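Chapter review: from sequence to fold.
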Amino acid sequence: MTERKKMGRPRKIPDEERLQEIIDEYFLRCEENGDIPTTAGLALAIGVTSKTLRRHETGESGDDLCPTIKRAKQRVEEAWERALLRGGSGVIFWLKNNAGWKDQPQADDSDKQPIFNIVVQKDGD
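The token string follows.
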């Protein structure tokens, strides 16, 4: 029997072990520089686009890297949550636009006007 050649594009993301090394290096570099890690920065460190990173996160790519990518993106979100605790008006916008946070109106019995609170409610969870 002859061995079949693999078809299609070569894999952009390295194997899981090397991927984890790249991710750890990225977060260490952010920490050393005092930067908040970002999803786009994570994708750049890995050498792919944000769109490709999302494909691997959702499992759409058909490989086994989904858990590794999800953990890395969770680390990014956690860093932004910590930044929110330190203050900064832009942080809440990042969390809303990138981490699925939403404003949720709640009725207050005293004046019947809705009060807006930030509630951690991620899409798909």
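Two observations follow directly from the output. The chain has a mean pLDDT of 79. Helices lie at 16-33, 39-46, 50-58, 66-86, 89-98.
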